[in-house]
Amino acid sequence: MKRISLFATLLITAVALLSTSCGTGDKIGSVSMTVGGTTGTVNLVGLGGTLQLKVTANYTSGKQIDETNFATLTVVPVGVDDTGAALPAPPLGVQIDNTGLITATATDANGDGLCTWINQGTLQTQSWFFTGEYTVTASYRGFTSNPVYIPVASAANNQGALTNGQCGPTS
Known about the structure:
171 residues, mainly beta, five-stranded antiparallel beta sheet, four-stranded antiparallel beta sheet, 11% helix
């Protein structure tokens, strides 16, 4: 009789542990992406200018792990530059490496950059809006991050007297 009751006790304990999900491990709940070193408006400035992206796996327990080097990054050009021309596909305009470093690159063989900003204000009271950006998302273990929108200021603006060549906000 003692063997049966001991067996029954072990069986009930095992079922209780399994039903409470004990030992099932931590799981990824989401993936997020941020642009390092920026506060406020993101702006990729100057040919060769860089921004560092960071991809974070957010676990159900609350822990966060940097997975930038293991995520798949996708860059899609959206919109137009300040002249109305469609943004070129990477590696023209921008390129991104497997560490999440995004770099402003030339748009053609002449080494031209681009400006995706327009001033809707005056020269004295500027009001900047971007007309196009490179939308970046990260994928990691079946999860896709929030998009990050990156306007580019790697060339002078073509709005003449409204900008004096300035492309985008300076602060």
